[in-house]
């Protein structure tokens, strides 16, 4: 008579294999922890690689000016974008802290002819300079940061599928423009002219002049 034995062998083999794999995994983690094996890496971790082409020198400019003063500025930019839809659906508000600098300088490139007048006794000199000017403000991207940001549902979905690089650029441009305006209304230009006058006084006195007049044009 043919008898059929109940099949339980396959299940037990599967259980034994799973237990064995678990034991091997635990052993690898322990050996990695005690430095007997190389450190295990997260399989879902990301690695950033930066590549670029060689830097190209586009131009060289000869400078004939005196950088007389530098100012550091901080600005808070509140950039709000909205549409006809409710703000919880579409729209964003970004609070950005911008740190930047601006440099005030006096150009010496036009010092010729009547710009320098020396007396007959060579004891007095009058120097006429153009007014101090400002360089374009420079935003320090390492010290500037987004303090807070709120976005509507559609904006978050758009960022998830590719983002909007123009929004980040807008807040940087706005911060740079506000720093430029603040520098223009600050004492930076007056300080630059005062420092330039002091520098020229010291230099011309060392050349033997006793009466030194430094003026700035309009």
Structure report:
The chain is of the alpha+beta class and 218 residues long. It is built from four helices and eight strands. The strands form two sheets. Strands 1, 2, 5, 6 and 7 form a five-stranded antiparallel sheet that branches. Strands 3-4-8 form a three-stranded mixed sheet, covered by helices on one side. The longest helix has 25 residues, at 9-33.
- For this structure, the quaternary state is single chain
* Span of the ends, CA to CA: 121 Å
Question: SS-based structural class?
Answer: alpha+beta
How large is the count of helical segments?
4
Helix content: 25-40%
For the secondary structure, the number of strands is 8
What is the H-and-E element order? HEEEEEEEHHHE
What best-fitting shape do the alpha-carbon axes yield? elongated
Question: What are the segments in which pLDDT stays under 50 over at least 5 consecutive residues?
Answer: none
Strand residues, percent: 25-35%
| Radius of gyration over C-alpha positions, nearest whole angstrom | 35 Å
**Largest beta-sheet characterization:** 5 strands, antiparallel
Overall pLDDT, averaged? 76
């Amino acid at each position: 008579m043919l008898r059929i034995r109940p099949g339980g062998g396959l299940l037990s083999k599967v259980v034994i294999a799973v237990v064995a794999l678990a034991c091997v995994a635990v052993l690898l983690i322990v050996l990695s922890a005690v430095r007997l094996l190389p450190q295990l890496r997260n399989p879902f971790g990301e690695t950033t690689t930066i590549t670029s082409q060689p830097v190209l020198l586009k131009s060289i400019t000869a400078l004939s000016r005196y950088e007389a003063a530098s100012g550091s500025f901080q600005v808070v930019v509140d950039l709000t974008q909205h549409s006809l839809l409710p703000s919880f659906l579409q729209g964003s508000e970004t609070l950005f802290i911008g740190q930047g600098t601006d440099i005030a300088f006096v150009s010496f490139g036009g010092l010729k002819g009547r710009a320098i007048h020396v007396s007959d006794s060579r004891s007095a000199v009058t120097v006429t300079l153009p007014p101090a000017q400002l360089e374009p403000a420079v935003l320090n991207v390492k010290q500037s940061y987004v303090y807070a940001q709120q976005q509507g549902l559609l904006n978050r979905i758009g960022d998830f599928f590719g983002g909007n690089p123009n929004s980040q650029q807008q807040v940087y441009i706005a911060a740079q423009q506000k720093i430029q305006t603040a520098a223009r209304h600050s004492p930076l230009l007056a300080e630059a002219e005062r420092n330039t006058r002091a520098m020229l006084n010291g230099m011309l006195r060392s050349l033997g002049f006793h009466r030194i007049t430094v003026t700035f044009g309009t």
